[in-house]
Each structure stands twice: as structure tokens, then as C-alpha cells.
Amino acid sequence: MPWLRIDDGMWRNRKLLDVSPVGKALWTWCLGYSADQLTDGVLTRADMRQITAAVGIDDWQTPMRELVDAGLVEVDGDAWLIHDYLDYNPSREQVLKERDAAAARLVCLRENYPNETLDSRRRRKAARRARKAAAPVVEPIRRAMVVERDASTCYLCGKVLTDAEITLDHVIPLARGGNHTEANLRVACRPCNSRKGVRTEGLA
Ligand SMILES: [Zn+2]
To answer: Which of 71, 115, 136, 147 is the most exposed place for a label (fewest CB within 10 A)?
Structure first.
């Protein structure tokens, strides 16, 4: 379930406003379907059958033509492409990579905290949240972007890491007033990350 991102200016987007209500519904459902089914914004005829059944319309060619005319959807051979889809939403590849990494993190978590109970996990998480909340700047972190920026390389030992080995380290630790931002995060291997603790060595 990757969340779908839609520009919040959509409600006053001229291109979209000129489309009929059915067209607006179709556009929204196309976006949701694409994000859920990881189609990278591409919709085949078979996809369109599912989408239009869900929207509850028989004639979808007419509103689809509207969307194409408005530049919200592009014709791509025998399929359709939602305009700028990947500018706002992660690709199938990114989502699958992120899911693999999340599964691997869960395995690491079980290894690192074998005796953790639901209660102690809640306390550990709450402490972490409190540290984050106290950070001067807190931004949503796009892990995949940080990993790509740092070329999956540990900034402390220089080792190129597999997805399962990657952790993100606050260069200036949260406990030292560091920001919870992508700019203050670096890819680090687990040994380096836990060795560094709350020190600030390796600051570039
Ligand atoms: Zn390292």
C-alpha cells in the first residue's frame, strides 16, 4: 500500500476543471489503480476494464478522450499513460525495493532485539519519536532517495552495501540537536552506525 500522491492544486487545475465529473472520477481512479497495482502510470485495456467497472461507467472512451485532450493522459500505443505519474509517485521498482528493505529491516530488528516485548518496543519507539520531535527540523524521509544519493555506500567505512545491510545514520545525532532531514542522513553499515553512537565523527 504505497500512498498515492496527487498535487494539492488539483482542485483548481485548469486542465482538470474543464473535464466532466465522470472524467474527473476516471482520472482519480486511474491514479489510485496505478499506484496500487504498481503500473508506473501505464494502463492497458484490461486495466481500464477493471477501473471503469469500479467507477461504475460503461462508456469510458468518451471521458478518456477528454483526459487525453486535456493532456492529463497520453496515448501510448495500445495503452494509456497518466501524464507525469512518476514525477509524483514512486516507480514499481522503487516500491518493491522499499518493501524488500522493510522486510530485511524486520529480520534485523528481530536479531537486534530478540527479547523485545510489545511493551518495550513501544517504549523504545516512543523514546525515538520524542528525540525526533525535539529535532529543530523534521522532514519526511525518502529512504530510497538517500540510498540513491549515497550510492548505497557507508559514509564511515566506504563499503558498498546491499539493501539489507543499509541503515541511515544522523550525521549530527538527534541527541546532539541534529535535524531529522535527508541532508543530515547518510547511508551507513550497521557496525559503523552502532559504533558511532551519538558522536559526530565523519562529518563531511
Ligand atoms: Zn561502515
So the answer is: 115
Distance 29 CA to ligand 1 centre (A): 44
Q: How far from chain centre, in Å, is Cα 106? A: 18
Say how far apart CA 6 and CA 1 lie, in whole Å: 15
Distance 149 CA to ligand 1 centre (A): 16
Rounded distance between C-alpha atoms, residue 25 and residue 63, angstroms: 9
Residue 187 CA to ligand 1 center (angstroms) comes to 9
Residue range 132-160, pLDDT digits in tens: 888 999 998 999 999 999 999 999 999 99
Question: How many whole angstroms separate alpha carbon 193 and alpha carbon 172?
Answer: 12
**By C-alpha distance, which of 174, 163, 164 is closest to 196?**
174
Taking the CA atoms of 27, 28, 31 and 37 in sequence, report the sign of the dihedral they define. Answer: negative
- The total of other beta-carbon atoms located within 10 Å of residue 54's CB is 12
